[in-house]
Amino acid sequence: MTDPTTPRDEAVARAELRDDEARRLLGMLSAGTLPARAQQWMTDGLEHPSLTVLAGALTSTDERRAALLAEAAESFGLGFASVKAARAYHGERIVASMTAASASSDALGYSNSFTDTIEESVRDSISRLFRPRG
Predict the structure, then answer these.
(1) Residue 2 lies in a domain
(2) Could you list the residue range(s) of the whole structural domain that residue 108 is in?
């Protein structure tokens, strides 16, 4: 990340916010980095009460930070209708950013996130089918 006191193009901030929202939905977000990212996004020109709170949320829980990110993404129209839509977006971004040097690790990271989502769905289905008796 750049110096949070140096403004960048607002489109860069919007793209980063959308990327982080996709990662949040996919369970791949490191919420501890969000306060510094929110400070940068605000410097870049994004304004929303959720970002203001998030920028100062160094002592908040990861869940609260993630909720603030979701609120901001929704307010800017950068949210996703479903996890499937977030996964498709995330996959497109990975493919677009791949270089010959990073392709194998990027593909592996995407594959792992997709596999985790399938595993979670299967476990959820099994738990609904085989509820404890008693």
Answers:
(1) no
(2) 83-129
What pLDDT digit, counting tens, does each position of 31-72 carry? Answer: 888 999 999 999 999 999 999 999 987 767 889 999 999 999
Q: Is the pLDDT of residue 81 over 90?
A: yes
Same domain, 43 and 16: yes
Nearest 10 degrees: Cα torsion 113, 17, 7, 42 = -140
Q: 36 and 87 in one domain?
A: no
Residue 100: pLDDT over 60: no
Question: Domains in the chain: how many in total?
Answer: 2
